Amino acid sequence: MKNIAVIGTGYVGLVTGVALSEIGHSVICVDIDEQKVASMREGISPIYEPGLSELMKKNYEAGRLSFTTSHEMAFAGADAIYIAVGTPQKEDGTADLRFIESVARNIAEYLADYAVVVTKSTVPVGTNDYIKQYIEKHTDVPFDVVSNPEFLREGSAVHDTFNGDRIVIGSSTGLAASILKEINKPFGIPIFKTDIRSSEMIKYASNAFLATKISFVNEIAALCEKLGANVDDVAQGMGQDKRIGEKFLNAGIGYGGSCFPKDTSALVQIAGNVEHEFTLLKAVIEVNYKQQRLLIDKAREHFDSLRGKTIAMLGTAFKPNTDDMREAASTILARELVLAGANVVAYDPVAMEPARKLFPEAVDFVDSVESALDGADAAFLVTEWDEFKELTPAQYVSFLKEPVLFDGRNCYDLEKMKAAGIEYYSVGRPVVKVEKELV
Ligand SMILES: NC(=O)c1ccc[n+]([C@@H]2O[C@H](COP(=O)([O-])OP(=O)(O)OC[C@H]3O[C@@H](n4cnc5c(N)ncnc54)[C@H](O)[C@@H]3O)[C@@H](O)[C@H]2O)c1
Ligand SMILES: O=c1ccn([C@@H]2O[C@H](COP(=O)(O)OP(=O)(O)O[C@H]3O[C@H](CO)[C@@H](O)[C@H](O)[C@H]3O)[C@@H](O)[C@H]2O)c(=O)[nH]1
Question: Phi-psi region for residue 410, left (φ > 0), alpha (ψ -120 to 50) or beta?
């Protein structure tokens, strides 16, 4: 079993640290955020991720997992140092590497003995070479750098870490690769070994490909709406071809989150740096831009004007089972609705606090789905939480002023909505209209 330091305790760092301790390693997580460290020491996870708190507490109490704000303490005796700090998007679309740069400084300063530096953060091709050169320049202590990109999804991060399809290890030395293989062996997940630059590219290419699948199916959805087809059936029929695969073909209001938007944009820039215009990926991003605003377009068509209308927003998180609001479509929708003069009443089972900080002040937050729907002119279903999927048509009918629903996640059966008399707009499926009797 190895001694491992993990730098950064966000979604990736904390889940990685907890998982590595669960398979028996001795793990110390370091973060510059004192509040986070204090809360983890009290057994409270700073992020909402199903199953994480329990596993964190278990390994903390077993003495295999600890937390600190001191890099020096974390690196002492470490066989491997995992980098899991953020690489957010800069205004020009490129990846902001300032946290990576500061970590390289931390390592150069406090590295005491040979260790493998393992980059989990998503970094542009060539960044690991930069990290290596920087540390080499500032210390004589030997080390190796390995690229080990992360593929977990938020909302199922713990499950994904123990059940990944592959672990990618990009290394230029046999020793470092074998240490990484040994560390990861207890996971029992196939390991794919390659060189460092290919490993860095695998991460961007994977995210860009998944984003492409989503924008592709959303374009098909737009055509389905115009041609009278149903995108859910189309996606299912396509997905049964194993070469296409059924996953990531859910039409909706586009992709959000902390990864796809920033990584697609960074890859366009990475391509640009070597004078390659990534036309396909640019179109993927453009489609997503339109898609995130789709419910507003549909509502405008229905109501003509949104001024004075009350809209119940069901869900604010970018996907279910997370409190992450980064690049959530809800933020765009809330802003545009308020700009159009609508009143917005929002509810999310876990992401309300972070949403409050990002939404316009005019948005009202309520503590139940019923309060959100009560007396509203229409509902926007933005995040497909189970709690919303379980709502019955009768509940919409009884709470809304007029039963009008704009569903950005295709949660309900068209026939059931029709039978209940709900005007139901979803994505890439026929609109359910209610026949109004002429007086
Ligand atoms: N969130 C995901 O689902 C996901 C999945 C795969 C890959 N990634 C990639 O993993 C990386 C981390 O993402 P995240 O969402 O976990 O980030 P995050 O922003 O949630 O967490 C980063 C943490 O690093 C800490 N930090 C910054 N500088 C530090 C330093 N010098 N020393 C110690 N701690 C420091 C911050 O305080 C913060 O707690 C990114 O590159 C991201 O693209 C994220
Ligand atoms: O068929 C689909 C699948 C997803 N989405 C949307 O796409 C976004 C991203 O979803 P998902 O991939 O499930 O969540 P993330 O946590 O962002 O995970 C992605 O980004 C991570 C960070 O790089 C990677 O590690 C994961 O492999 C990759 O799936 C969300 O807004 C979803 O609503 C769709 O619209 N349709």
Answer: left
